[in-house]
Amino acid sequence: MADYIDDLLRALDDKGVQRRIREIAGGEEKKGVFGGGEEKGKKEAKQLRAALNDKESELEMLRRALQEEKEDKHRAFRQVEELKQTVSNGEIESQNIRRQLETVQKQLEELQEENRALKDREGEYAGCVEEARIVRSYYEDGFRQLDTYYRMYMQLGQEVHEDLTRVLSGKSPEAFLCWGVQWGNIEALWAFLDINLSLGKYDSDTLDVLSKIFDYLFEQYREMNGNYERLDTKAGDEFDEDFHKRSGDSLVAGRISQVLLRGYRGIANKKIKKSVVRI
Question: What is the pTM assigned to this prediction?
Answer without folding.
Answer: 0.51
